[in-house]
Amino acid sequence: MSQLDDLYRRVIMDHYKTPRNRGELEDGSVTVNLNNPTCGDRISLQLQLEDGVVRNVKFTGEGCSISMSSASMMTEAVMGKTSEEALALADKFSALMKGEDVQFEDYEDVEALSGVNKFPARIKCATLAWNALRKGVEHGSGKHEGIEQ
Amino acid sequence: MKSEFPILQQDINGHPLVYLDNGATTQKPRSVIEAVKRYYEWDNANVHRGVHTLGSRATDAYEGAREKVARFLNAPASRQIIFTRGTTTALNLVASGYARQTLREGDEIVITPMEHHSNLIPWQQAAKATGATLKYIPLQPNGTVTLEDVEAAVTERTKIVAITYVSNVLGTINPISEIAKIAHRKGAIIVVDGAQSTPHMKVDVQALDVDFYAFSGHKMCAPTGIGALYGKAQLLERMEPIEFGGEMIDFVELHDSTWKELPWKFEGGTPIIAGAVGLGAAIDFLEQVGLDNIEAHEHKLVRYAMDRLSSIDGVTIYGPPADQRAGLVTFNLGDVHPHDVATVLDTEGIAVRAGHHCCQPLMRWLKVSATARASFYLYNTEQDIDRLAESLVKTKEFFGYESIG
């Protein structure tokens, strides 16, 4: 199971068992609901965007260890970042999923998910939360609902 | 038996492959692969039109496969076998070509919550289009239906009862013959989803007295892209084609056309000829092994699997006891998400399905978002199940599931 150790590193299990920023925002300005119809993973992401900055972010949802730990990490990574910085991080995460050697200087936990690129069927689990973030930031304000294929 | 299946001879992630995703699709024996290859190397041509030798050979091969399917299901005549892309297409053909043409407002379609989306959404849509009502026969806590509940659900207004023979999630074997009697007594027809039954047990559409019966080839050793719909002759005659074009026409005028007779009026376009040839070869293969032997073998396996898996602390098995189910086991392992279970099993060379199995209403009934499923076929062994059980124990240790949640 050494291959697995790469995938489910301690840090992933830590985020899965003790998710950060899980819950709902009372004053969230953007809500994004996404799901993976093929597997049933779903996330509801709430963002509080102010002057182009992610002031607060929370998520609820259900899914496997990869999708939920990735959501937890994402919220920590983008908290306090500008919209541009948050989108740049989402791009970086896409690169990480393609197996590219990228660093998350401010928040290294995310790199624990690099092993997911060896499991093609699981990449969509890891990217679900980041896709929700991208939709939320790009739409800026107002409610947005979407289905992730 | 495994030696007949080339694909099963490989290692996956450093372990000999244990393929337990037969409910999704089955592997192909050498004889089926060879039959498809031989068709393309020697007989390929379009059917029903070439005057030349290859055209005749291709037509004979295609129509020969239809004869085999008719005999396999004990249909009265091969013209009652419509080749389709699979079960989904076959059920949609009935929903569009029969249900939408005949249903009126206030009519009822009766189904169960254990239906695959393919035997649910076509009826949902037909009901919406015609103003008919979609009704559900409730499930017992162990995932079966009682005949009393069928009696109560099917009324004089019911025109169609659509039900799966075997549940792809619970493994439940439904009493089709008895349900058909109830449906007919109330003046309804019965449509049966045979995707999970046809590969695993002897099916006799006349003894069951079903009006329509659909199945897929790829779940019974044949290639993907081929399946069939059986229908009673007078119903098929009444049905309108839903696909128009080549192959299905009789005379074409500028402003009107007439259709060929059964079964060709439902087979517009060049069909999946090689697929039909492969299906014929698969039927030969299964009949050589014997459907009764396959059923007995899988029954032994499912009993063994339920014993082994239920002895693992934290495993929840869904569905009826072993003596009331077909060869599959759907389960969860503590709080470990089934996708995580499937990924760990994959690293051990074991293929299982994880997800909602195209049964979202049933998942809600089970109060789970997803499950893992091990489904067996004639080439599986008790050793395969031992490997599954051992790997599940490892998975549990890996996730330390007791401390989750």
Automatic annotation (TrEMBL), chain A:
<protein>
    <submittedName>
        <fullName>Fe-S cluster assembly sulfur transfer protein SufU</fullName>
    </submittedName>
</protein>
<feature type="domain" description="NIF system FeS cluster assembly NifU N-terminal">
    <location>
        <begin position="8"/>
        <end position="125"/>
    </location>
</feature>
<dbReference type="InterPro" id="IPR002871">
    <property type="entry name" value="NIF_FeS_clus_asmbl_NifU_N"/>
</dbReference>
<dbReference type="Pfam" id="PF01592">
    <property type="entry name" value="NifU_N"/>
</dbReference>
